[in-house]
Design a protein that fits this description.
about 75% helix; about 0% strand; mainly alpha
């Protein structure tokens, strides 16, 4: 069972790399690039929208949201682009994944705004 999970994770990682290269490909329509960019940025982000320390919900993005986004994006990309990007992805997997600090910063900003809004609401409510 552990070997199946590891194989699934490797496949998921390769699919993310395929999307990463497909985003840069000129043969992909703009709306697919936009969706693909969002999926890749979120998956490569060092910060999750739902932090992993939150019981159960923390892993929802890792188990459901990211694979679902990958599946949808791969269906939107032309097959010939996927083939070409698959070769590039295989090579990139040997070198390590890129980090998207911009997406991570945006997610941190969202959490900060939620925290500030909560503190402001509690302060107003307690008065």
């Amino acid at each position: 069972m552990i070997s199946k999970i590891k194989a699934w994770a490797r496949n998921l990682k390769k699919q993310l790399y395929i999307l990463y290269f497909a985003y840069k490909d000129g043969r992909v329509p703009w709306y697919t690039k936009l969706f693909t960019a969002c999926v890749v940025a979120y998956a490569f982000s060092p910060v999750d929208l739902i932090p992993d320390f939150i019981p159960v919900l923390g892993y929802v993005d890792d188990i459901i949201i990211v694979p679902l986004g990958i599946m949808i994006a791969l269906r939107l990309i032309p097959e010939n682009v996927i083939r070409d990007c698959s070769e590039k992805a295989s090579e990139l997997m040997k070198n390590g994944k890129p980090k998207n600090w911009i997406a991570g910063s945006i997610i941190i900003l969202i959490w900060f705004l939620i925290l500030v809004g909560t503190v402001f609401a509690l302060r107003t409510f307690i008065k």
